[in-house]
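user: can you give me the structure for this one chain? tokens are fine.
assistant: on it. calling the predictor now.
[tool input]
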Amino acid sequence: MSRVCQISGKRTASGNTVSHSHRKTRRKFKINLVSKRVFLEDENRWVRLRMSARMLKTLNKRGVKSLMKKNGQDLKVLQA
């Protein structure tokens, strides 16, 4: 399974590691993914999501459905 947040769509980014002498080599910035079970009150069921730690913090504040609508994600992801 690829390292992609199911809510925000964030994925692994690439960039440079810069040494003290400013020599640049390529590296990857991996996303901090967390697997979380979320309860959907209106459907009365649990859904398992893989999301970034930042989205987990925002999820606790706003809720699942409003957060997915804001980020333009399809609610069919919640069907699985």
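assistant: here you go. Helices lie at 53-62, 64-70. DSSP finds two helices and four strands in the chain.
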